[in-house]
Specification:
CATH class of the largest domain: Alpha Beta
Main location: membrane
Subcellular location: Cell membrane
EC number: 2.7.13.3
Radius of gyration: 54 Å
Order of helices and strands: HHHHEEHEEEHHHEHHEEHEEHEE
Keywords: ATP-binding, Cell membrane, Kinase, Membrane, Nucleotide-binding, Phosphoprotein, Transferase, Transmembrane, Transmembrane helix, Two-component regulatory system
Strand content: 15-25%
GO molecular function: ATP binding; phosphorelay sensor kinase activity
Number of domains: 3
CATH topology of the largest domain: Heat Shock Protein 90
């Protein structure tokens, strides 16, 4: 199960808070313990010395250990907070008052005792606890002399085993109350902090959720969404702001896609209607002539029969040409065209295409020129697709150029590329219409009519082919003075242009 961001935040906050609370409680307890030990040790620092000075058994030297043990027993009854031990100069325990087996150690480390007797100011000083090996407690100590000779030490443990047992029970009860109270207050503060933090973090999320709900209710149409959507800061480091900006951008993108799809759908409907009409015209004519031939096969003169067959063939060619253009445009829009790019001499291609239209241009009194007439530059492109573009553009130029006009295929180097211009001296295109000439089925109002059927798909096909060739088909035109279509090709190598 994945944990969301706010759940991780809450768990982390609780964990950190609990660690801080435990650390504070432990530190406070240790500080209190050290302070209490220092106070008690300073308070009872002279206890052992006074006992040595005031008690004859210790003041005159210890010879009766049994009597001394009884003394220790009496003192422990009067002061159950203390434990009394008599040590030799090396720290060996000579006598004490305790039940058998209670005292585990036989010797006490003498260094802390000497440290305390030397009037050290660093408290608390802890010494060995004879009743628990490895444990240390605060103490009071004093040397015992006999004839100015060190006989041993009186070693008094402050806070003995019985005292520790009673204190531990009291502390457990008090600690539980303190912990319970501390946890109650801490959890209450934690709950308040979490509520404030969650309020702070969830407010922008709630705003974003409300915006999404409004957009969903508007069926994702931007123009139908209320104007009170939240404004997000794109440059913010807050993830919610960036998410809100992404949502706004996505909404704009979806709205643009809706508009484009709507326009495309409208264009397709119009295109389908126009193409249906264009297909119906040659098809109806073809059907009419064939039916006439079928019904009057025996009565029609040979001349009329030949005329009907020629017209039928012409309509069939027009129909095939229109269908081929429709399929070509469909393949280009569907991205189903494969490029076969290779380096080749552009001059040869231009001369070949010009030669293909030489007879049509001659019949109309139009001159086709390649400028310069000879050059050796190679370009990298799909020669078949480029020939298709040149064929469409030259055919359009011849169709819209009157007699005694010119169609030039000009080549020049531009920005490290080879620029190709197809210029004519034809009727031109008006400024109002030039922006629409690459739309499918669009034909300018001054389009020249001829005997062939034109679907208005040629320039749309040319533009899409040039996009595939990583180029851009541009147009410049002046009404009544001619038109120039141009594009650029990747230059491979070659010699200088020659006239």
């Amino acid at each position: 199960m994945k944990i969301c961001f706010y759940q991780r935040l809450a768990i982390s906050l609780v964990a950190v808070f609990m660690l801080v609370m435990i650390a504070c409680f432990y530190s406070t307890n240790e500080l209190q313990k050290l302070t209490q030990q220092e106070a008690e040790q300073k308070l009872h620092l002279g206890l052992a010395e006074h006992l040595v000075q005031d008690n004859p058994l210790l003041k005159e030297g210890v010879y009766d250990y049994k009597a001394l043990g009884n003394l220790f027993h009496t003192l422990m009854i009067l002061g159950p907070n203390f434990e009394f031990y008599y040590l030799d100069p090396r720290g060996e325990i000579l006598t004490y008052s305790a039940e058998p087996g209670k005292v585990k150690a036989k010797k006490v480390d003498i260094a802390p005792i000497k440290h305390l007797i030397s009037d050290s100011k660093s408290f608390p000083i802890e010494g060995d606890d004879p009743r628990q090996l490895g444990r240390h407690k605060i103490f009071s100590a004093a040397p015992v002399y006999n004839d100015n000779k060190l006989q041993g030490y009186l070693y008094v443990i402050i806070g003995g085993e019985r005292y520790d047992s009673i204190l531990a029970n009291l502390k457990n009860s008090q600690s539980m109350r303190e912990i319970a109270l501390f946890m109650l207050v801490g959890l209450t503060l934690l709950l308040i902090a979490l509520l404030v933090i969650f309020k702070y973090f969830t407010t922008p999320l709630r705003r974003l959720s409300d915006d999404m709900e409004k957009v969903r209710e508007a069926d994702f149409h931007r123009d139908q969404v209320p104007r009170d959507l939240a404004v997000w800061n794109k440059n913010s480091h807050n993830e919610i702001d960036r998410l809100g900006c992404a949502f706004t951008d996505m909404l704009s993108h979806i709205d643009d896609q809706f508009e484009k799809l709507s326009k495309i759908d409208t264009q397709r409907r119009v295109l389908l209607a126009d193409l249906s009409h264009d297909l119906r015209t040659p098809l109806a004519s073809l059907q009419g002539y064939i039916e006439t031939l079928a019904l009057n096969e025996d009565t029609l003169p040979a001349k009329d029969r030949k005329h009907f067959v020629d017209v039928s063939l012409k309509n069939a060619k027009n129909l095939k040409h229109l269908i081929d253009q429709i399929f070509e445009l469909a393949y280009l829009e569907g991205g189903q065209v494969t490029l076969h790019q290779e380096p080749f001499p552009l001059g040869e291609l231009l001369h070949d295409v010009a030669a293909k239209f030489a007879l049509d241009a001659q019949n109309k009194g139009i001159e086709i020129r390649v400028i310069p007439n000879h050059f050796e530059y190679h370009v990298f492109a799909d020669i078949g697709k480029l020939e298709r573009v040149l064929t469409n553009l030259i055919a359009n130029a011849i169709r819209h150029t009157p007699a005694n006009g010119q169609v030039d295929l000009a080549v020049a180097i531009h920005n490290d590329k080879l620029r190709v211009d197809i210029r004519d001296t034809g009727i031109g295109i008006s400024d109002k219409e030039i922006a629409f000439i690459f739309d499918a089925r669009y034909q300018a109002s001054n389009t020249e009519k001829d005997t062939c059927s034109h679907a208005g798909l040629g320039l749309a096909i040319c533009q899409k082919l040039m996009v595939l060739l990583n180029s851009d088909l541009k147009v410049e035109s002046k009404l009544g003075k001619g038109t120039c279509f141009s594009f650029e090709l990747t230059l491979v190598n070659g010699g200088p242009l020659a006239h």
